Amino acid sequence: MGMAPETETGKAAEKEAAPGSPAKAPGPRSATVRESVKAVGLRWDTAVGVLLVAVLTVGLGTTDGFGSGENLAFAFNDIVEVALIALPMTLLVVAGQVDLSVASMLGLGSALTGSLWSAGWAFELIVPVVLLVGVAGGLLNGWLVTRVGLPSLAVTIGTLALYRGLASVVLGSDAETGFPQAYADWAVDTTTIPGTFITYPIALFIVLAVATAVLLHSTAFGRSLFAIGAQEEAAYFAGIRVKRFKLILFVVTGLFSAFAGIVFTLRYGSARADNGLGFEMLVIASVLLGGVDFDGGKGTLFGAVAGVLLIGVLKNLLTLNDVPNEVQVIVTGLLLVASVLTPRVIASVVERRHRRAAVALPES
Q1: What is the 3-state secondary structure (H, E, C) of the chain?
Q2: Cα 98 vs. chain centroid, distance in angstroms?
Q3: pLDDT of residue 59 exceeding 50
Q4: pTM to 2 decimals?
Q5: Residue 245, Cβ neighbours under 10 Å: how many?
Q6: Contact, 331 vs 318, CB < 8 A?
Q7: Which of 173, 250, 280, 364 would be a feasible disulfide site paired with 138, CB 3.0-4.6 Å?
Q8: Taking phi first (over 0 means left), then psi (-120 to 50 degrees means alpha), and beta for anything else, what does residue 175 get?
Q9: Is pLDDT at 18 greater than 80 in this prediction?
Q10: Per-residue confidence at 6, pLDDT binned at 50, 70, 90?
């Protein structure tokens, strides 16, 4: 799956040469950069997966209770909202976009759930209304990016504040509790697959992750996202509906974020305007840690999911060992910096080696 973007890039490069014209050999710098980035891309998501297995192994060998079904259920359920939002965020980043308003939309979804429940609405009616609000929020983000032409980073910084402010208006500083027990149990019950630690939200995430992986790596839609992220103008002239694709991604991200707000509310049994505060950094850190390039055009869903799980498992392991929350935040920040910096450092080292090898070759 990780080789999909490089394959598409190669095909695009072949089309760029005019029929009958002599092929133009790439310069040594462009060739080495492409080769080094490709080499990093094929290994990075696998390395994150290996690191995840290593952390699990260390936890099982050093920390009492880490491998219990109860703890594993808690550890994975504790990051399920981040994991759900990371799915559409991966598609967005592959397409060269970002949405920083996701945590605020989660908070708005939670606040709206609590407000409508307090007003006497049936929970079966609350869910579709909250999801429609998520779609509307994503539509606003997408419209400002695709129609007004504003950069997604600037737009979603603004809507980050807007949606969080709306959440405070909807519910104020109060917390709403007392949600239906059947729905509360849905968020934490581990009897989805009897005898396992998999809860209903985790099972739903697994299904959605598989569907998203197929969409990204095995369909024309996914190949178009890689093309848009790699070179938006070239994708447009190739006939890809760039603006429509971006708009769809923002709408889906808003939808997933609002749904994550419902899950968060049920899981904690409390609707608050500040629910999910700071989750946008966890989502982006997970996606980038998994090897999805922030510049777009490169990455795999496997890597993004491995990044989410790695952060969740590491957080759980540190908590069991009584590591303060402040230190956990520092560790997450260091992982984010490493995920962005390490591939570029490796690419630079590989490029220098190629240059030295090219200089050392005798002239023919």
Answers
A1: CCCHHHHHHHHHHHHHCCCCCCCCCCCHHHHHHHHHHHHHHHHHHHHHHHHHHHHHHHHHHHCCCCCCHHHHHHHHHCCHHHHHHHHHHHHHHHCCCCCCCHHHHHHHHHHHHHHHHHCCCCHHHHHHHHHHHHHHHHHHHHHHHHCCCCCHHHHHHHHHHHHHHHHHHHHCCCCECCCCHHHHHHHHCCCCCCCCCCCHHHHHHHHHHHHHHHHHHHCHHHHHHHHHHHCHHHHHHCCCCHHHHHHHHHHHHHHHHHHHHHHHHHHHCCECCCCCCCHHHHHHHHHHHCCCCCCCCCCCHHHHHHHHHHHHHHHHHHHHCCCCHHHHHHHHHHHHHHHHHHHHHHHHHHHHHHHHHHHHCCCC
A2: 10
A3: yes
A4: 0.83
A5: 20
A6: yes
A7: 250
A8: beta
A9: no
A10: very low
Mean pLDDT, rounded, for 91-95 = 96
d(CA 170, CA 66) in angstroms, rounded, equals 39
pLDDT score of 192: 59
